Amino acid sequence: MQNIITVDEIFKRNEISVRTYHVCKYNQLHSILDILKYYYKNKSFEKLRNCGSKSNLELVNTCNKYQGDYYIENVEIEVKVENPLKNIVLNLTRIQREVINNFIFVKTNSLSVRSRNAIVMHLNNNLKVKNYTEKILLSENFKVQKIKNVGAKCIPELEVYISIIQDFILEVSQTTDEKYLIALKNKYLIQQTFNIPFVPSEILESESIFLLTDFLFNQNAFFDETQTNVVKKGLKLYNCQKEITLDEIAEQVDLSRERVRQIRKVCLEELFSKLLFISNFNDDLFQNYNIDTQSSYIEINTDILEKINNFNNTDFSREFITYILSVYLHKSFTLIGNSEDILQFNYFNSRNKHNWNNFYLIDKKLASEIDFTFFIDDVSSRLSDRIEESYSFNFKSYLSKFLTNNNVEILDLLFPICERVVNDEFEIYLDLDENLNFKKNSSKQVHQYAYEALEELGKPSTVKEIFDRVIELHPNYNTEEAKIRASMKRKNGFVPVGRISVFGLKKWENELENFKGGTIRDIVEEYLMLFSTPKHISNITEYVLKYRPKSSQYSILQNLKLDESGLYVFYKDSHIGLASKKYESDFKKLSEIIKTDVRTWAETFEIFQNFISIKQRLPFSSGVPEEEIKLYRWINLQQSKQKKGKVEENKKEKLNSLLTKYGFKNSKRRLTPQEKYEELISFVSINNRLPSANKDGEENLYKFYYKQRKLFEANELDNLEKIKFIEVAKLFQNMKI
User: Fold this and answer.
1) Residue 286 pLDDT more than 50?
2) Which DSSP symbol is given to 411?
3) Domain membership of residue 702 as a residue range
């Protein structure tokens, strides 16, 4: 006699759920034979008390499994009734399919890596509900154990995963309320992606990408709380947003300025990918805001901006709304414009590229036909160059230069878009003949104002004196001292006078008696270049005094000795030559002569006095010429002798009065930051560049600038030092004016 399997045995084998087990017991179906008889007679179990879709499906699958093993009144159950799940899937509405597809996608992504890879491979990377049910839920041969690359540890996880999805399909198939289905889809997506426990119903039901973006930002869903604060304060996300500096943001979030800068940079780079989540939603842009996604160009004008913000009760900026749309429509539209220029608050404009003012949302295929960046940079470059005579291009011909595929037929479609970009970015417009005009811009330049002021002054003057005279002559002219300083280059007809930010006119060297620009060293170099032999210091002094009457032989000599460039060579009997020239062997270099003379205290003190008179500081112990190092050692020797009572009172008083005046502390000395900044400003003004770490004599000044820049970036300079550093930065930025 054939052994009949009981319902208890089927349940113990985990072939039916607890609910289905109780359905069988309640309806007197105690064995597989009872189940088969009922199924053969009724073709379904849905009429049984408490039997739902899931239990019906389980019992049908059970019948299909055992129907070949039993005979009922000599009639084998041959007809295998179609699994009801197949019809359920076929009859799903579009929104039901979308809900289930999203659910499958999210649940699959939540699996462990190995399980996810196995399922995705089994489904051939097609996670749509139709393919999923055919290959897993409706397949008679499907067994979790047989999936390729599935190990024993993955089986329980995948069985639960499959069961959850099957239950969800049945639940959704019984729901016809489209509004509820949309909310269900959105709720599950948001909660599963961001782990947000509660989502307001208006967000779930509206599918508004703007309302959703605002909600997710406020929930810190895209970034952590600190990052979100930095993004909200440091990017132009909202209308009428207060423009605040990185320093102010740093103070509010209790971080360093540099850390805030780093966070803003990283978050802006990640913003597009973070916002891609909104692509899962279905906002009716045309119905809600009259945005035509079938057009080749989408513009967010004032009306659309107000509609979006009023409809969603938000306050997004035009720039950010365009950015959100670019993410949502990324498959069909391209965002033109630099995000850093447009979304960040920028305090300095780049001099090497165009600084974008707006975003432009352009059809992807159309945008790929032209290099917008090259096009806009070219227009910007032409406008920023000095234009001596006006000129123009036929706009369509000009655009053809920037086509990427040489598809000239596309120019008619590109023309109005490119014209709009040029209008908005540069405020220039085509003429009636559709020409783009580049008008003469060679109006009076900064250096011309400075030149006029110096002519009025009629003598070498400081930058401040020149600036004041410019403002006096042109009260409505907007400029500043740093721009005036940067404009006074030799090529513009100016010459520096000494190293104290005094300038004259080059033409004065021919017009004024005893006027010559440059430093004392420049004048000496010019003089020595005239001769084939070294010249005596007295001859040099006589020449220099014509142009620098307040100088003296001794100060000139010490000035030359303090030169760190190695330009000058000192010979026996107070002769001086240039290292670049070759002289007869009759002249002996001092460096090659054994020195036997020892200076007296008075002589050394006089050298010390002259050093201070020229340098306005005490000697350094290193990184300077040997003569200066010797002076440094001499001072320390005198201090040591003073402690032992070996220095006469009159010498002691003379020395200490100078040391006290310049803040001697019996340790290595350095210039005050204020003095160093003056030296740096003077260097940049004269050389039209920053000091170099690789050039002799500039190393110390370079180190100072490098350290100050790092301190500025770390916000560790005091207010006075910040002002000076910004002055240097502006001076350097304006060099090419």
Assistant:
1) yes
2) H
3) 673-736
Average pLDDT, the chain: 84
The H-or-E segment that residue 706 falls in is: helix 699-713
pLDDT tier at 348, thresholds 50, 70, 90 = low
Q: Do 550 and 575 sit in the same domain of this protein?
A: yes
Residue 354 lies in a domain: yes
Structure tokens at 502: 């005094």
**667: phi then psi, degrees, rounded to nearest 5:** -150, 180
Give 233-270 pLDDT, tens digit per residue.
999 999 988 888 899 999 999 999 999 999 999 999 99
Please say whether the beta carbons of 133 and 165 come within 8 A.
no
Q: Give the whole-angstrom CA distance, residue 677 versus residue 721.
A: 8
Q: What's the CA gap between 525 and 513, in Å, rounded? A: 20
| Average pLDDT score over residue span 449-460 | 87
Tell whether 118 is covered by a domain.
yes
Share of the chain above pLDDT 90, in %: 25
Phi and psi, residue 238, nearest 5°: -125, 160
Last residue of a domain, one of 347, 368, 389: 368
Question: pLDDT tier at 298 (50, 70, 90 boundaries)?
Answer: very high
Tell me how far apart the alpha carbons of residues 670 and 639 are, in angstroms, rounded to a whole number. Answer: 18
Torsion of CA 377, 380, 386, 389, to 10 degrees: 100
**Sign of the dihedral through C-alpha 140, 144, 145, 150:** positive
Cα gap 533→578, rounded to integer Å? 9
Q: How many CB atoms lie within 10 A of CB 614?
A: 16
d(CA 393, CA 378): 13
Mean of pLDDT values over 644-672: 74
Last residue of a domain, one of 631, 661, 691: 661
Number of domains, the chain: 6
Q: How far is CA 301 from the centre of its chain?
A: 27
Same domain, 235 and 119: no
Q: Break the chain down into helix, strand, coil percent, rounded to 5.
A: 55, 5, 35
Residue 633's nearest CA partner among 597, 568, 658, 641 is 641
Pair 229, 357 in one domain? yes
- 35 shares its domain with 129: no
pLDDT at 27 (0 to 100): 86
Q: Are residues 309 and 334 in the same domain?
A: yes
Do 216 and 363 share a domain, yes or no?
yes
Give the pLDDT of residue 511: 76
Q: What is the pLDDT of residues 58-103, one digit of tens each?
A: 888 888 888 777 665 544 444 455 677 888 888 888 888 888 887 8
